[in-house]
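Retro notes, item 3 of 5
We never archived the inputs for the fe (ii) ion complex last cycle. Fixing that now. Sequence and ligand:
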Amino acid sequence: MNDRGCGGSRISEPLTNGCGRTGVANSGGVDNGDERSATERLTLRLLAVRKQTEQLVHNLSDADATVQSMPNASPAKWYLAHTTWFFETLILVPNLPGYQVFDPSYNSLFNSYYERPGSRHERSERGMLTRPTLEQVLHYRHHVDSALGALMTLAPSPQLSGLIQMGINHEQQHQELLLTDILHLFSRNPLEPAYCAQTRPECWSRRGSATGFNVYAGGLLKFGYSGTILRLTVKDLFTSATWCHSSCREVSLPIENDLNLLEMVDIGGPS
Ligand SMILES: [Fe+2]
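Structure as it came back at the time:
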């Protein structure tokens, strides 16, 4: 039941589409003193994440969203549809009385590795799906979003709310994969298309070089994007751990491309 990382998002902060578009509130279910009901907050979170996914493809053409750059990658259009299939198949069909499936043929096209719903289209062939078009997939999303809005008015049980939250996290997980895969696709194009026209931060405009080490005695460390520079530990490259069992050191440098990452490895492994 895993689709290259399905099941739990690492995103806990608003994610933009790289062009200044943002829209997702806290996704972790934290109560910030909001007096709205839990269902209202869940509804807002759900619709915001669904909208955000569409914003991520705002600058993509149908062709951009359809091509699959390698067997391990998936087209952006497939991600749009798969995350929608998840809500339709696992949440709406069994829980919203009278729900009309948008297109029964989508069940096998946009299933990933889930066994119970039936057959699945071969992963390496996802880039062959020139139909449905991007526009049709967006209609599919809107059909499902409308039904989700109706479902949320029915006061979903705690169990169903938990499933919806999982759907939100599942979609966020695929947002990350969508961005990763579209950048790989563009990297294969000699024209070097940009995902968006936004000027990169100043710190990205020059070739990165190590600026030194931060030494830690151990304990919980905060890694990841910090606003202007990607901070990543050498240890994190190998373990993705955020817990440093013993002393370790963190190298600070702008990450521009994989050469920078190799440079970071070259200057020292985990200590
Ligand atoms: Fe998935």
